[in-house]
Amino acid sequence: MRRKRGRPIDGWLIIDKPSGMTSTQVVGKARWLLDAQKVGHGGTLDPLATGLLPLAFGKATKTVPYVMDGTKIYHFTLKMGEARDSDDADGTVTGYSDVRPTDDQLRAALPALTGNIMQVPPVFSALKVGGQRSYDMAREGRPPELPPRPARVDRFELIERIDRDTAVFVVESGKGVYMRALARDVALACGTVGHITVLRRLRVGPFTVADAITLDKLAPNDDKASALPELLRPVETALADIPAVALTEDEAASLMHGRAISLVDLMGRLPKVDEEDSPLCATEGGRVLGICRLQDGLLRPVRIL
Q: Active-site positions, per UniProt (predicted)?
């Protein structure tokens, strides 16, 4: 059997992504600097975007879905009067408008873009159409017609009007919401066109930008030998927002072998959850064991760490 390249490193590295790099490039750079076997990330950022990009190493990759399911917070700057094919400043201009809405008109457009909405993704997105990436088709001059998709926007507020052409918004959302589409759509709702010029992500699930470091801090002067693996956070950090249930030693052993536990045995120890199928973090003696779900009167293991 071929030995995996790199070191077996486990944990989360919280990066403040610079503009101009793709999320994949950041992952590759961190993997190289730490000589790690396995790395993933908790939610793609556009090349133009900056801010929070959580990187999962080793066993932490098992917890990525729970991070991506968490709340995300963004700030973005909308430039009005100019449409671009990518809905951000990296794209080609496709149209103009002389209309400049007032602050009140911008605010009046936000409720329709808040809550459970249907959103048409940007054509420059990684969605697949007939087996091909939408952005590849768009670059080849045949942008696809993408159908609206469900999206959840919990908060959408105007926080600053910089000048006649430019406004800054804060968005709090669930997974799969495109900020470029929100910027495009608020401009269209006000009778103009627009695109994002600045996008910064401030939160993903339990992680905030205050937790983040730059790639330079991970390895000063790009020196692989100086990389600091101690900057990684424990795997279980990703599960901080998930309600926990404490198990006995025997219950933990059963769970680790894939066996479900009767909820009758857990009476008085179960936290309140919104839905029966909600995830729970199973612990034993302060140690995180993995993710479980409540189903049919049982605590069932989903992902053992």
A: 46
